[in-house]
């Protein structure tokens, strides 16, 4: 999935729909990985989503790869203002820290 420049990949919620009795897991099939619609997920890296059918006989695993575009779709590189737009976008900060790289005391 390609996302617009400036999209934050952490923290995000995932909106996953499956059959009521199916089980959905995010990044593993342990009970602690059961999908929670209110949980915050880090999609800076690939996220594996596993769906187990109601009867438990069918398991499908999907991989969510989120990629943030490195430019704006509506700002052609040939336009005179392209560099200024990119400078402003980069100065505003276009990514959020992941849980592995952030800390409560980080500035």
Rg, rounded, reads 18 Å
Mean pLDDT, to the nearest integer, reads: 85
Spans of at least 5 consecutive residues with low confidence:
94-107
> In which order are the strands of the major sheet placed?
2-3-4
Shape annotation = elongated
Tally of individual helices: 1
Task: Report on the architecture of this protein.
- The structure is a single chain.
- With 107 residues, this protein is an alpha+beta fold.
- 10% of the residues lie in helices and 19% in strands.
- It contains one helix and five strands; from the N terminus they run E-E-E-E-E-H.
- The strands form two sheets. It has a three-stranded antiparallel beta sheet, with no helix packed on it.
- 1% of the residues are buried.
- The model is unreliable at 94-107 (pLDDT under 50).
Features:
single chain; 107 residues; alpha+beta; three-stranded antiparallel beta sheet; 1 helix
In a nutshell, what does this entry contain?
With 107 residues, the protein is α+β, with helices and mostly antiparallel strands. The protein has one helix and five strands, in the order E-E-E-E-E-H.
SSE layout and pairing:
Elements: E1 2-3, E2 23-26, E3 47-52, E4 59-64, E5 67-68, H1 82-92
Parallel strand pairs: 1-5
Antiparallel strand pairs: 2-3, 3-4
């Amino acid at each position: 999935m390609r996302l617009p420049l400036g999209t934050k990949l952490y923290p995000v919620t995932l909106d996953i729909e499956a059959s009521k009795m199916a089980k959905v897991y995010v990044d593993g099939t342990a009970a602690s990985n059961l999908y929670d619609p209110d949980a915050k997920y880090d999609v800076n890296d690939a996220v594996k989503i596993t769906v187990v059918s109601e009867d438990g006989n069918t398991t499908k695993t999907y991989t969510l790869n989120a990629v943030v575009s490195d430019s704006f779709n509506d700002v052609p590189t040939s336009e005179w203002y392209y560099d200024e737009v990119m400078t402003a976008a980069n100065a505003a900060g276009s990514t959020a820290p992941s849980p592995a790289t952030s800390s409560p005391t980080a500035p």
